[in-house]
Amino acid sequence: MAKPRSGAKKATPAAKKAKTAKSGVLKSASKRVAKAAAKLVAKATEASKAGKKAPAKKKSAAPAAKKAAAKVKQVAKAATKVVAKAAAKVKEAAKGKEAARPKEAVKGKEPSAKAAARAEPITPPVEKPRPRATKLPPPGEPLNKRDMEQLLTAGQGRGVVGEGSLKGRLTLVEGLPGLVVIGRDKRELVFILQGPDQEVLPAYVDHKVSVSGLIKKTTNYGGTVDVRKFSAKKPEAEEPAPAPVESENRLRYLSPGEVSQVISAGMGAGMKGFAALRGNLEMTGEEFVLVVSNAGTRQQVSYILEGKGAKGLRRYLGQTLSVTGVVDKSSGWGGRIDVENVEVRPAEVRPMSREGLETVHVEGEQSTSIDVRLNHAFTVRLQEQPGFSWAIEPTAAKRLGLREANFEVSAEGPASREFFFTPRNPGVSEVEFFLAKAFNPGQVERSFKLNVTVKA
User: Bias category Basic residues: which stretches (predicted)?
Assistant: First the structure.
């Protein structure tokens, strides 16, 4: 079976009806013509037979045959005229039905009788004019400071009503003038402007407008204003900003808050400025170091002293100094100071008296166990290395009662550091000593552990 072409159009019901009507008319006309022709042929044959039987009447039969042929022609012409008129009427009827047919019939769906009856020409809807506020309401109570704060805060203040004034940029909101106001949190609030001036205000779009009247915040992000007075200012043309002039970063004095960050562990990295810092003077190799906080622990903050003012500091080793200069904190655990002035200060914490204390002493790196009496002391002395410093964890220092971490200079050999502990809680503790970078305590060269048993 041959499939119908996909692009072929299906015959509509109106076309089918027209086709059937046309074929019926043609059939009826052809039947009439055939009957008339059959009668004439029968008469002609009868006349010819009569002529053969009676040769004397030969002349009279010929005219009868001619008359019969003429009548056949007339009947054929009449039949063709009737067929043409019928076809024209069928075409007119088909055109009228196609014009009145709804969209459903065009798509191939036969519309129902109700749908055909309801089919009417569609007319575009007429837009109704929007109601505009032309009358001003009576004056209300003036807005106080709290009301204005709620009014200008995005997300709050719905329902606030009162007399006041607003400033902002004029814009159009669905054909109505709206005032875009910058709120407290730099967020935009939109207020529709009403009143007799509502027809005039759209001429000032993108102007800076100040209005005064009855303000109603209908939502948390806007509302309406019944305008009693307004003034508009044309926005000034923005001048191109001058190119920034590159200037040297001028050093400034650090504030007390910034100084507290400079001497705190893990804070203030990248800060630079004039300041006066106080701490204990130590050495690492050939460089002088000022330890300003957390001495002897892995949270120690220290600064290398350099510049002309750093000369002749060897005689102050182990003492407390006040150093003034340009502080540059490169990491959370210290940096450098370009020294301008150095002054010797008394120690902030007086050294604890060791008289009457039973002291256990550990010399060098020994992974051993020691017994200490409660409220007495033990010391650990370790040899320093250039660029490195011995330290312990801050929690261990607090648990074992670290009192001092003294830097000691020896004329015969390298410097050393003495840790002085006075444990206050009985029990067994393990303390680990780290030899780490002076300004990077996370970088450890080596370590060892010491087991301490505190007896009551």
Answer: 50-60
- pLDDT above 70 for 15: no
Residue 21, C-beta contacts closer than 8 angstroms, at least 6 positions apart: 86, 90, 93
Tell me the average pLDDT across 434-454: 88
Report pLDDT digits (tens) over 73-99: 776 676 667 657 766 765 676 565 555
Q: Does domain 145-232 have CATH number 3.30.420.10?
A: no
Look at the pTM and tell me if it is higher than 0.85: no
Every domain of the chain and the residues it spans: 145-232, 256-344, 359-454
Is the distance from CB of 290 to CB of 281 less than 8 angstroms? yes
CB count in 10 Å sphere of residue 415? 18
Residue 374, SS3 per DSSP: coil
Q: Do domains 145-232 and 256-344 have the same CATH topology?
A: yes
**Stated length of the chain:** 456
Closest Cα partner for 297 from 263, 335, 265?
Answer: 265
Instruction: Please give the DSSP secondary-structure letter assigned to residue 59.
Output: H
- Stretch 185-189: mean pLDDT, rounded? 86
pLDDT in tens, 306-360: 988 888 888 888 889 999 999 999 988 899 999 999 999 887 777 778 888 899 9
Q: What tens digit of pLDDT does each residue of 391-403 get?
A: 999 999 999 999 9
The backbone torsions φ and ψ at residue 35, rounded to the nearest 5 degrees and listed phi first, read: -65, -45
The sheet that has 377-383: what strands, in order across it? Answer: 359-363, 377-383, 416-421, 402-408
Give CATH for domain 359-454.
Answer: 2.60.40.2020
The answer to whether 189 touches 221, Cβ cutoff 8 Å, is yes
State which amino acid sits at residue 386. P
Which architecture does CATH list for 256-344? Beta Barrel (2.40)
The secondary structure of residue 447, as a DSSP letter, is E
